[in-house]
Specification:
By secondary structure, the chain is an alpha+beta fold. It has 2 domains: 174 residues, 2-Layer Sandwich (Phosphorylase Kinase, domain 1), CATH 3.30.200.20; 185 residues, Transferase(Phosphotransferase), domain 1 (Orthogonal Bundle). It has 16 helices and 10 strands. The strands form 3 sheets. Strands 1-2-3-5-4-10 form a 6-stranded antiparallel sheet. A hairpin with a 3-residue loop joins β4 and β5. The longest helix has 20 residues. The C terminus is likely disordered. GO terms for molecular function: ATP binding; G protein-coupled receptor binding; G protein-coupled receptor kinase activity; metal ion binding. InterPro entries: Kinase-like_dom_sf, Prot_kinase_dom, Protein_kinase_ATP_BS, Ser/Thr_kinase_AS. Its EC number is 2.7.11.1. Its cofactor is Mg(2+). It catalyses: L-threonyl-[protein] + ATP = O-phospho-L-threonyl-[protein] + ADP + H(+); L-seryl-[protein] + ATP = O-phospho-L-seryl-[protein] + ADP + H(+).
């Protein structure tokens, strides 16, 4: 029997993403807790977001890393598409900035190391995230950082370049705007490392190095990067400033943009990378375990304002099925919508990492691949090395 909504108990709503809502769930058989993101199919069609959801699923089904928010299950019903991912109860870094948390250099240093490992892994998988920012860094209960939200991520291979104007403007690298204006050579993995630099600066100072907002025209931003110089705090260590300068280098060819670059920094020269990868270093900021680090209004919205709340889904679907059976399908009011819904139903890829891990344990392998018959075996072989990526990177890093 394939996994479905009934295999989970809904506990509470905790957030809203760009294309869906998020709640805490418990899998009934194992009693394990997860975060479940659900996206209404009709809304995705109306907003032309189906392609983005499918791309995010395609990416998440193929990757797994200690500093990512990993996908465990994906499934669908008549109304929604579901992604069940790691549950991280420490809140996102945006929330903590809004709570006026003062992040120390030592704390930000560990975030930089953990995100460097995550971004280096993504680069090895040919993935540009394109939306690295405090909102998309979730903390676990111990305070370790995890990158989430692959909604606008893209895959580039064999020297390809990305060209789309994608991201959140205050965190987007200069070459993205240049490419959009001039139609030049595009951009690559370096853009994520610029975003990492912007985020690190913001965590340390409480504001970003450039005064950029979503309504700024692209033309003005291109000029801004060539005229405005970043001001660094005199209270920061020289080594931290030197590292930030290398991340915030306008020319991507001279920017730090991989783990090997980061490891040459004097600020990170003594980092025990193997310990970082194993989460053995104690974070400087540990979220308060006695509270849920999210906006409490999400739960109220779900219970009171949401027209199709999750806790009433079973009854609602049964009612819809009864209504559909009593109606002549040829009288459909919206044939186009129905065609789109049927296409989603047919093309959606079901994924079960738990099932895959169990089958791989029996054969002595470790893998991650979608449920697609014979195809899964090929995907599994390719993925075996991916899951060991962090340990191999860390073991080589520890020797430098």
């Amino acid at each position: 029997m394939q996994l479905n909504f009934d295999h989970f108990q809904i506990l509470r709503a905790i957030g809203k993403g760009s294309f869906g809502k998020v709640c805490i769930v418990q899998k009934r058989d194992t009693e394990k807790m997860y975060a479940m993101k659900y996206m209404n199919k009709q809304q995705c069609i109306e907003r032309d977001e189906v392609r983005n959801v499918f791309r995010e699923l395609e990416i998440l089904q193929e990757i797994e890393h200690v500093f990512l928010v990993n996908l465990w299950y994906s499934f669908q019903d008549e109304e929604d598409m579901f992604m069940v991912v790691d549950l991280l109860l420490g809140g996102d870094l945006r929330y903590h900035l809004q709570q006026n948390v003062q992040f120390t250099e030592e704390t930000v240093r560990l975030y930089l190391c953990e995100m460097a490992l995550a971004l280096d892994y993504l680069r090895s998988q040919h993935i540009i995230h394109r939306d690295v920012k405090p909102d998309n860094i979730l903390l676990d209960e111990q305070g370790h950082a995890h990158l989430t939200d692959f909604n606008i991520a893209t895959i580039i291979r064999d020297g390809e370049r990305a060209t789309a104007l994608a991201g959140t403007k205050p965190y987007m690298a200069p070459e993205i705007f240049h490419s959009f204006l001039s139609g030049g050579t595009g951009y690559s993995f370096e853009v994520d490392w610029w975003s990492l630099g912007i985020m690190a600066y913001e965590l340390l100072r409480g504001w970003r190095p450039y005064d950029i907002h979503s309504n700024n025209p692209v033309e003005s931003l291109v000029q801004l990067f060539s005229t405005v110089s970043v001001q660094y705090s005199s209270t920061w260590s020289k080594e931290m400033v030197a590292l930030l300068r290398k991340l915030l280098t306008v020319n991507p060819e001279h920017r730090f943009s991989c783990l090997a670059d980061i490891q040459t920094s004097a600020y990170l020269s003594a980092v025990p990378w193997g310990d970082v990868c194993q989460k053995r270093l104690e974070p400087g900021f540990v979220p308060n375990k006695g509270r849920l680090h999210c906006d409490p209004t999400f739960e109220l919205e779900e219970m009171i304002l949401e027209s199709r709340p999750l806790h009433k889904k079973k009854k609602r679907l049964a009612k819809n099925k009864s209504r559909d059976n009593s109606k002549d399908s040829s009288q459909s009011e919206n044939d186009y919508l129905q065609e789109c819904l049927e296409a989603i139903q047919q093309d959606f890829v079901i994924f079960n990492r738990e099932k895959l891990k169990k089958s791989q344990e029996q054969t002595g392998e470790s893998t991650s691949a979608p449920e697609s018959g014979a195809e899964a075996e090929t995907e599994a072989e390719a993925e075996t090395s991916n899951l060991n990526m962090c340990s191999s990177v860390c073991s080589s890093a520890g020797s430098t």
